[in-house]
Design brief:
single chain; alpha/beta; 2 domains; seven-stranded mixed sheet; two-stranded antiparallel sheet; 11 strands; 21% strand
């Protein structure tokens, strides 16, 4: 097999020059001298036999050939990093760090119990926890390399196990005007009241879900924010039953009596971001999450009839 003349480091330097917008910026990011960065890119272009960059003003721009090769080099570097991670996982059997991405509708009590059970068994594995909403989990997989994503959306090409059925309930404060209605509430009446909606955390290709299409809505960034606003008597929302257990039992929230759609159920999945490279710590955490989800308490619910 013919050995490559161009090294991974040369591709990495080229990527940095493009991503950072110039040789000086790349040198700072890579902790190299500017002359070293310039020489590396010049040598790369010499070995290939044609230019990859053109200088416009003070900014380096990719040539047409450069764009094609840079795109391929990103995949090459990603695979190289993944190969090293696989080698480490096979050698150690236990990840030094676990990146966990969780949709905010995942039952918080079950998540906290699982993490508490995981810590003494973790063998020092550090957990990086990030909360997302809706397609934020998919974006995390597309842009990064998380170990585990808990989401309702499973992108193509990923292994996933169903982990919990999430129950969303339409609720409002007991003193809300909707509880003065006689009989079940239809969508037309509901749409005249303010609805709290949780914003999709994805920066690109975000989606709207769970709202009625009315202009009378406020958008917030978290389940907790929506919960606090609804409890205060401002508007209504569909919220995860597991996260409003105390508010329902204490009477701070009541289930709305709707003609239809008062309850919305869907599954969340444990998506293994690293596939066959999934380590022992990640698998242990999934087992603990599944065990805790199976014992989630059910709130007692009364509707405003």
């Amino acid at each position: 097999m013919k050995a490559p003349r161009v090294t991974l480091e040369q591709w990495r330097v080229l990527q940095s020059v493009v991503d950072k917008g110039g040789f000086a910026q790349a040198a700072e990011a890579l902790h190299k001298s500017q002359s070293s960065v310039s020489y590396t890119v010049a040598k790369l272009q010499e070995q290939l036999g044609y230019p990859l960059l053109s200088i416009e003003g003070r900014k380096a721009q990719l040539t047409e050939r450069g764009e094609v090769l840079l795109r391929r080099s990103r995949h090459l570097l990603k695979e190289a990093v993944e190969l090293e991670q696989l080698a480490h996982t096979l050698g150690q059997g236990w990840e030094p760090e676990l990146e966990l991405v969780v949709d905010q509708v995942f039952p918080t009590p079950a998540l906290l119990r699982a993490l508490k059970a995981f810590e003494p068994q973790s063998q020092g594995t550090q957990v990086q926890l990030r909360e997302v909403v809706l397609s934020g989990g998919t974006e995390a997989l597309n842009l990064g390399n998380p170990d585990l994503v808990l989401s309702s959306i499973v992108p193509k090409g990923y292994l996933a196990d169903p982990i919990v059925e999430v129950e969303m309930m339409a609720v409002a404060s007991p003193d809300h005007l909707l509880f003065q209605e006689e009989g079940p509430i239809n969508n037309e009446r509901l749409s005249r009241e303010l609805q709290l909606v949780i914003r999709d955390s994805a920066l690109e290709a975000s989606v709207d879900a769970g709202w009625l299409g009315t202009e009378r809505r406020w958008t917030v960034s978290s389940v907790q924010s929506a919960l606090e606003i609804v409890v205060s008597g401002i508007g209504f929302a569909w919220l995860p039953k597991a996260d409003i257990f105390d508010e329902l039992n204490s009477g701070k929230l009541k289930k709305l009596d709707l003609v239809s759609g008062g309850d919305r159920n869907f599954y969340l999945y444990a998506i293994f971001g690293k596939g066959e490279r999934t380590g022992s710590a990640t698998r242990l955490l999934v087992d603990l999450l599944q065990a805790e989800c199976n014992v989630c308490p059910k709130p007692s619910v009364s509707s405003g009839i």
